[in-house]
């Protein structure tokens, strides 16, 4: 990735884990990342106990957008940029992933998105090994994903982003601007405070 680094801002603080005084190094910086625009990143590292954590939030807020792409085996390499505020849905498979507090943006392709869904379904199969309904449903989804990859099935990939920092990079993708009302119904993964 081609990153334009802005100046790092470093300060010292108390560690919330070990209670060390001024042992926590807090680094903040702004990066410009292709597809996602300006991102504000904060990372902390405790010099005493080694505690570390990092967070990033998107600074750019564009118009709410929705992409719809009919996917089959010819679309597996289509590039998809999913920001941390985006929701991905494949209605035919009953699959939806909404942003949460821990959600990250990533650039992948259609096959990569399907693989992520597949991994999540496989995790559900392991966690719910006693529940035969979950097992049957999950195995059915895995079968449908396989059929999609092999060209035996088509489905719609829908990407919605209330902050407009996401994209399905394909000439066949239909781009629709969302109304504010529609955008307000989407999760952003951020706690918002009404003023
Ligand atoms: Zn510490």
Characterise this structure.
This protein has 195 residues and is of the alpha+beta class. It folds into two domains: 9-58, N-terminal domain of TfIIb, CATH 2.20.25; 65-184, ZPR1, A/B domain (Jelly Rolls, Sandwich), CATH 2.60.120.1040. It has helices at 110-127, 132-150, 180-184; strands at residues 4-5, 9-13, 24-33, 37-46, 52-58, 65-71, 79-82, 87-90, 95-97, 106-109, 155-161, 167-169, 174-177. Strands 1, 2, 3, 4 and 5 form a five-stranded antiparallel beta sheet that branches. The protein has a five-stranded antiparallel beta sheet with strand order 9-8-11-6-13, with no helix packed on it. The chain has a three-stranded antiparallel beta sheet with strand order 10-7-12. Residues 1-5 have low confidence and may be disordered. Zinc ion is lined by residues 15, 17-18, 20, 23, 46, 48-49, 51.
Count of separate DSSP helical elements:
3
- In CATH, the topology of the largest domain is named Jelly Rolls
Summarize the biggest pleated sheet.
5 strands, antiparallel
Question: Could you say which small molecules are bound to this protein?
Answer: zinc ion
Helix content: 10-25%
Structural class computed from helices and strand pairing: alpha+beta
Shape: globular
- Sheet-strand content, in percent, reads 35-45%
Q: CATH-wise, what's the superfamily of the largest domain?
A: ZPR1, A/B domain
Computed over alpha carbons, the radius of gyration is: 20 Å
CATH C-level name of the largest domain? Mainly Beta
In CATH, the architecture of the largest domain is Sandwich
The string of secondary-structure elements, in order, is EEEEEEEEEEHHEEEH
């Amino acid at each position: 990735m081609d990153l334009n680094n802005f100046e790092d801002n470093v300060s010292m603080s108390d560690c919330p884990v070990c209670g060390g005084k001024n042992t926590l190094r807090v680094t903040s910086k702004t990066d410009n990342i292709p597809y996602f625009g300006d991102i504000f990143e904060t990372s902390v590292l405790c010099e005493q106990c080694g505690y570390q954590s990092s967070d990033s939030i998107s600074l750019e807020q564009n118009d709410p957008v929705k992409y719809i792409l009919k996917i089959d085996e010819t679309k597996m390499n289509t590039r998809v940029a999913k920001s941390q505020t985006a929701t991905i849905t494949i209605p035919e498979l009953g699959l939806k992933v909404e942003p949460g507090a821990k959600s990250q943006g990533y650039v992948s392709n259609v096959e990569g998105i399907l693989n992520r869904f597949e991994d999540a379904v496989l995790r559900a199969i392991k966690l719910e090994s006693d529940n035969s309904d979950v097992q049957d449903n999950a195995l059915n989804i895995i079968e449908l994903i396989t059929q999609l990859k092999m060209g035996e099935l088509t489905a719609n990939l829908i990407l919605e982003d209330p902050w407009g920092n996401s994209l399905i990079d394909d000439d066949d993708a239909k781009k629709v601007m969302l109304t504010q009302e529609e955008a307000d119904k989407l999760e952003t993964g951020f706690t918002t405070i009404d003023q």
